[in-house]
Amino acid sequence: MNVFGVDIGGSGIKGAPVDLERGDLAEPRHKVLTPHPATPDGVADCVREVVDHFAWSGPVGVTFPGVVTDGVTRTAANVDKGWVDLDAGALLGERIGLPVTVLNDADAAGVAEMTFGAGKDRKGTVFLLTFGTGIGSALFRDGVLVPNTELGHLELHGHDAEKHASTKAKEDEDLSWQHWAHRVQKYLAHVEMLFSPELFIIGGGVSRKADRFVPLIEDIRAEIVPAQLQNNAGIVGAAMAAPKTGTPGWSR
Ligand code: BGC
């Protein structure tokens, strides 16, 4: 069965119908650039454009780069502050006229990886960390998600960790792979000190280039592997979370 997934990111809003049996895109994804500022209204129009591109008319799952509880977006580190405490499920559901579920982007990617990718059949404590505009985290214990962990905002050397170790920081400060890998290592060491996970799955667009930096990361006890669904994990996880039935508007 195909269900639609949309991934709202800091630079692009991407979506596609997803084959939920294979855990992969059923058609090539469509991407529009995230408007700046990324206001709720502007982003909702982009989500509609992505859904309309496929003339889609079924349930839709949408990821958001912030805390989401019961369809309400609670934080907005890298998007417009108008998202804070907004009923995003209602806004998006009305805008596209279809049943919608909204969830955190890293949680969505994590669920997809645990089901179809690098975390399949992995028990114990597993983290999926996405490196991009920010750092997203998804925590699993024996395959069960603890949502909205937000570990990108841990304090590292007196800074918000994602300001120091995201791929945006790498680009903004023009860091070498070696230099950036060192920062990622410090970050992973901190998460490891707190949670002692068995496995770190590295997601986000940079997972495509895992061979450039994962081998440079030393002194971490946990296994470190790149995400297998790479940058499509968010879209697949969004589709997995989409409401099974329902009327237009948000559905739990
Ligand atoms: C947000 C998280 C999000 C991550 C990746 C962080 O700034 O607080 O909710 O998962 O960026 O987009």
Structural summary, described in words:
With 252 residues, the protein is of the alpha/beta class. It has two domains: 2-104 and 232-241, Nucleotidyltransferase, domain 5, CATH 3.30.420.40; 108-231, Nucleotidyltransferase, domain 5 (2-Layer Sandwich), CATH 3.30.420. The protein contains eight helices and 17 strands. The chain has helices spanning 40-53, 88-96, 105-116, 161-165, 167-172, 177-195, 210-213, 233-241; strands spanning 2-8, 12-19, 24-25, 30-33, 60-64, 68-69, 72-73, 86-87, 99-104, 125-131, 135-141, 144-146, 155-156, 159-160, 199-203, 223-226, 249-250. The strands form four sheets. Strands 1, 2, 3, 4, 5, 9 and 17 form a seven-stranded mixed β-sheet that branches. Helix 7 (210-213) links the parallel strand 15 (199-203) and strand 16 (223-226). Helix 1 (40-53) crosses helix 2 (88-96) and helix 3 (105-116) crosses helix 8. The two termini are 20 Å apart. Beta-D-glucopyranose binds next to helix 3.
SSE inventory with pairings:
Elements lengths: L1 E7 L3 E8 L4 E2 L4 E4 L6 H14 L6 E5 L3 E2 L2 E2 L12 E2 H9 L2 E6 H12 L8 E7 L3 E7 L2 E3 L8 E2 L2 E2 H5 L1 H6 L4 H19 L3 E5 L6 H4 L9 E4 L6 H9 L7 E2 L2
Parallel strand pairs: 1-5, 5-9, 9-17, 10-15, 15-16
Antiparallel strand pairs: 1-2, 2-3, 2-4, 6-7, 7-8, 10-11, 11-12, 13-14
Helix pairs in contact: 1-2, 3-8
The site of beta-D-glucopyranose (BGC) has 15 residues, from helix 3.
List keywords for this structure.
binds beta-D-glucopyranose, 252 residues, alpha/beta, Nucleotidyltransferase, domain 5, 17 strands, seven-stranded mixed sheet, five-stranded mixed sheet
